[in-house]
Design goal:
The protein has 5 helices and no strands. By secondary structure, it is mainly alpha-helical. The protein has one domain. The relative contact order is 0.20.
């Protein structure tokens, strides 16, 4: 079974950051963004579903600057 929604996979990484590590979640966000696997809107929608908007917001802002 593959990943059907990369934005959701990144949001899940932030949701389970205490188990897998915040560094893993940040790396998933950076790599997915660099590879253009999702748009900012898709990522924000996935963050809303996983209830991690406040946690992801600073990292998403960091990507907007790069």
């Amino acid at each position: 079974m593959g990943i059907h929604n990369p934005a959701r996979a990144v949001a899940d990484c932030f949701k389970y950051r205490n188990k897998i590590g915040l560094d893993v979640a940040i790396e998933a966000l950076k790599e997915g963004w660099k590879a253009r696997r999702f748009t900012a809107d898709e990522l924000w929608a996935a963050a809303r579903v996983c209830r991690v908007q406040k946690i992801m917001q600073p990292y998403m802002e960091m990507l907007a600057i790069e």
